Structure of PAS domain-containing protein:
Amino acid sequence: AEDIALGLHNIEVDENLEKRTYDLKERVKELNCLWEISNLIERPDISLEEIIKGTVNLLPSAWQYPQITCARIILDSQEYKSKNFKETVWKQASDIILHQKPIGTVEVYYLEERPQMEEGPFSKEERNLINIIAERLGKIVEREQAEEEQRLHTAMMDNVDEAVYLIGLDDLRIKWTNEIFAKMFGYDPGEMVGKKVDIVNAPTESTPTETRISIVDILKKTGEWHGEVENIKR
């Protein structure tokens, strides 16, 4: 009887070890997928479309049965599909959110039936993974839109006929100037960025620093300032 009990115990230990080993391999696959997506994002000059295409082809390898897994990413009505893509009833999906609104989905399908788990044939860890990927794609889209808006803004400001500059009210330093503004005061493009704004203020009855502080105080209180300031060229 003791031999039978010992044998059953050994079988149970072996099964637990096998399950832990399997689970560990699955977590490694998921981490590798996230790592590969991060590598995609960090490539210089990579486009949003290239990131989406690369991501959709990485997804199947991170799920439990990669040989029967396919994926699709829908973004702004544009579809990106992995190889052998086919819609089936065995589906897991997560919305891509931008500014609290869905703009697309990340979808993973099994091409064949598999044993039931926490979410159909999919595990709770796979649910977490697809949610993380969808959230990351939403942030990438948000970043791309912000960068595009900044490029358009810069192009517009660089092409106006007047001198324009931006300062930060928190540190009172120049954040950006167009080329006309820089040349007007004897600086190269971009050279003034990071400098205190009073470098262009000429000494009068007030020092340049006093003039700057006075203007900024009014801006903080009212949101606007009207007046004239004498400037000085380098």
